[in-house]
């Protein structure tokens, strides 16, 4: 990370002013979200195309400040080919009083999986390779006792060579931390998160991978719930009724009073049934025996095309 203050210049992006070091030229907007906007740029010092993320109101509240700190701290230490790394972090502020904006610099990737799924049908080989890379990245993240907690297609970047990197660690937590319930996009959220369990483990990321794999194979979201209760109902319809321990934690009578069979194979065509088998191992209710990212990574290796 830079240790000396560079010269900055101002540039208007989508009617907002960006103030960045002179080494980052040709700013061009590529996307935005609830927590920030991203521009592509050219680093004249390294000759690389990079991504610059301007965090939205990073210190507006304690929650925003924690998210900002968490993402910077984790990205700084991430060094794996399937996990995005931090190249630079800067602020144009010259005093604490002016310290309102933070920018993160990472490698520029191509489209995210969300855009790819909308534009084209992926082959089974492509899906397998993409899922394998997600699991490799998760194996690395989980080895540091970190849970990502917000895996979804838009947080998975892919370049033209089908190389994938996991993005956005603003919601990631250490496994020893006390957890909160409102994390992850609802459609990819594990039941234990939705039920506000204060302690859960890395299997919540595995659940998300199962949802993503199903979406890559079918082109449709596996659990497109319209709200919290509808999401649980869709999960129960496909995964079946959970055991008594989990059922007791579901407060909605409209959900917990019904019994549901398991209908996974109905969602997939015959050629995809082997993948359906894999997904059923991942989309299941939390137990200590649920597969880890390490085991699943080894499993996926066996089925990669030669």
Write up this protein.
By secondary structure, this protein is of the alpha+beta class. It has 10 helices and 11 strands. Helix 3 (124-143) runs antiparallel to helix 10 (293-302) and helix 5 (203-218) packs antiparallel against helix 9 (273-282). 34% of the residues are buried. Residues 176-184 and 252-256 have low confidence and may be disordered.
Q: What is the CA-atom radius of gyration, in angstroms? A: 21 Å
How much helix is in the residues?
25-40%
What name goes with the CATH superfamily of the largest domain?
Transferase(Phosphotransferase) domain 1
Question: How many individual β-strands?
Answer: 11
> Total domains, how many?
2
Note poorly predicted spans.
176-184, 252-256
Structural class: alpha+beta
Strand content: 15-25%
Summarize the structure.
With 306 residues, this protein is α+β, with helices and mostly antiparallel strands.
Notable features of this structure?
alpha+beta, Transferase(Phosphotransferase), domain 1, 306 residues, globular, 2 domains, Phosphorylase Kinase, domain 1, 5-stranded antiparallel beta sheet, 11 strands, two-stranded antiparallel ribbon
Write the layout of secondary structure elements.
Blueprint: E1 8-13, E2 16-21, E3 24-33, E4 36-43, E5 48-55, H1 62-77, E6 86-90, E7 103-107, H2 113-119, H3 124-143, E8 146-147, E9 156-158, E10 164-166, E11 173-174, H4 191-194, H5 203-218, H6 228-239, H7 244-247, H8 253-256, H9 273-282, H10 293-302
Antiparallel strand pairs: 1-2, 3-4, 4-5, 5-7, 6-7, 8-11, 9-10
Helix pairs in contact: 3-5, 3-10, 5-9
